[in-house]
Amino acid sequence: MPHCPICLFTETPLSSSSCSLCDTPFDTPFDTPFEKPLDSPSISSVNSSILSRNSSSNSLTSLLDYLPPPPSTLTLGSTPISPYGIGTLPLSISYSSSGRPPRPSALQILQHAFKLNVGYIDTGDSYHPGDDPGYMESCLGEVRTEGVGQVIGTKGGMELVGSKSTDWRLRKFREGEVRECVEGSRRRLGVESLGVWSFHHCEGYGEEEFGRLVREAKECKEEGLVENIGLCNVRLDQLEFARSIVEIAAVQNQWNLWNREAEFEIDEEVGGKRKRKVGKRGVLRYCQENGIVFFPYGMFGGVKARYAEGRPGKVSVHDFKTVVDMAEEKGVSPNQLVMAYVRQKWNCVCLIVGCRKKERIDELVKIRDGLVLFTEGEMEVLDAI
């Protein structure tokens, strides 16, 4: 990767003629950031574009106070991807009072995502209105393109029994039904091998039954029907158990400012002794330590907001004054600030933003292509929420 002589950024693609962080041309005739006077016009212009959207300060010292940005790619199994993705559930069902978009509009939104080279597109075989099974997978199969570093991930094991986002129930797989589920998704998506196939809800299974299902998924992977296996809504003990059978490339669990259990230390001190907790505690931390991609869902609250103790009445990130104020200072939306924060804190995270409008995808891409920088102090403030 090119090494920027101004800001020392090293994640710019080889094909670029200027730094992705500060826009310095790579033909700048000096090798270190301090070989030109600090009042040089080129350095002033470099800093102003970065600092203007991150703080009211305008000095090189402030720029150097910012933490290095997170890596621009993640490795999903053996595939490098951009860590910025979309979720298709809001295109599939009546996710809010405005209902779901008609199929032509949904197809246009998906085409927009592919055009912008969104790294990951999350769907599921139950993402459909009640009268059209496999609806969203079929939509994706219709508009799918072969983008570099793009992966479509789907999941099975839940049934939508109504028309709303809360009308779910567990679909218990009988023997052989994992393969049937995989084959159905392959057919609707029009692919030979699924980029990621995940169990939609792991918590409803006992160990023996869960082990049988994971082994069935492993057979699908060994036969080339699935490239990577993932787990959704999974406890830490289940994740460790599944990894004893087959490689797990991805996990999708809830994470938001209401529910940060996935970040906690895996062990808890009880009576002066370290004790392993059974549950979802520490799953994100475990993924970070073991090279597993973590897809957080429910990042912004809204319909799925959880009411944590001591925070009654908060239903979206806009209700957290700390987030709103910092976002305004940096010139981004509260949603964009939360996305940038979780990527900065946890490099294993791939964002999946539920989209029902093109504007939500554009909001995501601005975080990918622009940059929100944080100081250690700002990260500590957001950690404390």
TrEMBL record:
Annotated ranges, domain NADP-dependent oxidoreductase: 85-383
InterPro entries: Aldo-Keto_reductase, NAD(P)_OxRdtase_dom_sf, NADP_OxRdtase_dom
Gene Ontology molecular function, alphabetical: oxidoreductase activity
Superkingdom per UniProt: Eukaryota
Entry keyword set: Oxidoreductase
Pfam (any one): Aldo_ket_red
GO cellular component, one term: cytoplasm
PANTHER family, per the entry: AFLATOXIN B1 ALDEHYDE REDUCTASE, ALDO-KETO REDUCTASE YAKC [NADP(+)]
Name this polypeptide is given: NADP-dependent oxidoreductase domain-containing protein
Species annotation: Triparma strigata
